[in-house]
Design a protein that fits this description.
Length: 448
């Protein structure tokens, strides 16, 4: 006889119990969400100032460089950030040494990857104009990859410590700093280029990390817990786990970060300026499921009993966010672009009207990653993500070549939705384990 899932509590008492049981998840996800909202507002202001102060070509080149910098940082940090989220809650006594070692390794790896890419740019056209044409541009870009990678590891370390508020304040400081620097460049530098815009991003990122380090040192003193001597021997037993997380990370982030570069190379830097404005707004919606899924993974690593209820709550919030984003772009994509620059609606037309519904599919992808990390199925997850990411980029490239920006969006969206359909069963099994067990029960005891 199959078991049925227990009926959930209804009414105010049930809601209160749900909140109490998931208080830690909600507080940490709430900190990330609040930080997301504030940085989104500041990010909108940043690209608004850029669109109003610089040429579309300069903005498009800078946007493509920022995306590539973030992608290379994901490659260079080699999965150390997600490793910290999973292992810091289990090994609090080693947290300081683990974090310090991860930061040192990420800094070296990211700078090396950035320099290699800068060298490759001397040989191949990559759609960034003259930004990487000389040694100074390559050094600036490599430094940007380095500080971006360090910031990724720092933020994920604090999520692992269930201190997401610290990561939130660092992110807000970064967003405010880059906006202030961009305004200064717009005021002082006539005819600023994409490299000038990129420099504000890199310097603000570095400044936010220095302020964070200074505040930790002030609170804990020179002998405090802010820093421990790095020890690569600590990472050797975790090498398989780290590489698995790295493969998942890269496969997860490549489509999102490479898409602006695809628009720049296949279409034009001017078109990418308009596309990136809409893409940046949509990434605010992406950050909601990303933050929630990250906290589900962190809390589930420390207490497996929290996985199912936390996952259900996270999925519900993410679905609502994706629906709102889809309707917003469907009804007002040109108005959204017009907020940045009056030229952007002319460049993009109605091409981005369906783009917002991608938030629903991307939300499924983030939760699939959280579930597979908790199951320890990093290899299979990386293969599924790599296949799906390849399909996304192929759909975007083919769409761009044969129909422009409109069919690029349609090709990417179709591939993203197909991925979500493939990934959904694994998520639902973890979100509703009692139902999954009940459905599987007859096969365990076949009738004779």
């Amino acid at each position: 006889m199959s078991r049925s899932a227990p009926a959930p509590d209804m009414g105010l008492a049930g809601l209160r119990g749900l909140v109490v049981r998931n208080a830690s998840l909600l507080l940490n996800a709430g900190a990330l969400a609040f930080g997301t909202i504030v940085t989104a507002v500041l990010g909108f202001a940043y690209w608004f100032v850029a669109a109003r102060s610089f040429t579309p070509e300069a903005v498009g080149v800078a946007a493509a460089a920022v995306s590539m910098m973030s992608l290379l940082a994901q490659a260079g940090e080699t999965g150390l950030g997600p490793m910290l989220i999973g292992h810091v809650p289990r090994r609090p006594q080693d947290a300081g040494a683990l974090i310090s070692t991860a930061l040192a390794a990420a800094a070296i790896g990211c700078v090396a990857v950035g320099l290699c890419y800068g060298g490759l740019a001397q040989l191949l056209p990559i759609g960034m104009g003259d930004l990487l044409a000389g040694a100074s541009g390559c050094i600036l870009f490599a430094a940007g990859v380095g500080v971006t990678g360090i910031s990724l590891v720092v933020d994920q370390a604090f999520v692992g410590l269930m201190r997401s508020a610290t990561a939130m304040w660092r992110g807000i400081g970064f967003a405010a700093g880059k906006l202030a620097m961009l305004c200064l460049v717009a005021w002082l530098v006539a005819g600023a280029t994409g490299a000038d815009i990129l420099a504000t991003w890199i310097l603000a990122q570095a400044a936010s990390l220095l302020v964070l380090a200074g505040s930790i040192r002030f609170r804990h003193g020179t002998q405090g817990r802010a820093w421990a001597r790095p020890s690569l021997t600590m990472l050797r037993p975790l090498a398989g786990d780290i590489l698995g997380h790295h493969a998942v990370n890269v496969a997860l982030q490549v489509p999102s970060l490479a898409l602006p570069l695809v628009v720049t190379v296949v279409l034009s830097a001017e078109t990418n300026a308009a596309f990136y404005a809409g893409w940046a707004v949509l990434n605010v919606a992406f950050l909601v499921p990303a933050s929630l899924a990250t906290v589900v993974y962190s809390s589930g690593s420390g207490d497996p009993a929290r996985i199912a209820p936390g996952l259900r709550l996270s999925l519900g919030i993410s679905a609502l966010t994706g629906l709102v984003a889809g309707l917003a772009f469907l009804l007002a994509s040109q108005a959204i672009l017009g907020l940045f620059s009056p030229r952007y609606p002319e460049l993009a037309g109605t091409s981005l009207s369906l783009l917002g519904f991608g938030a629903l599919a991307v939300g499924v992808k983030y939760h699939f990653v959280a579930v597979e990390r908790l199951r320890g199925r990093l290899g299979p997850a990386a293969m599924v993500l790599a296949a799906g990411g390849t399909l996304e980029l192929a759909g975007a490239v083919l769409g761009a070549r044969y129909g422009g920006l409109t069919t690029l969006v349609q090709g990417w969206l179709a591939a993203a939705c197909l991925q979500a359909v493939v990934m959904a069963p694994a998520i639902l099994q973890s979100a509703f384990p009692a139902v999954a067990e009940a459905d599987a029960a007859p096969s365990l005891h076949p009738q004779r």
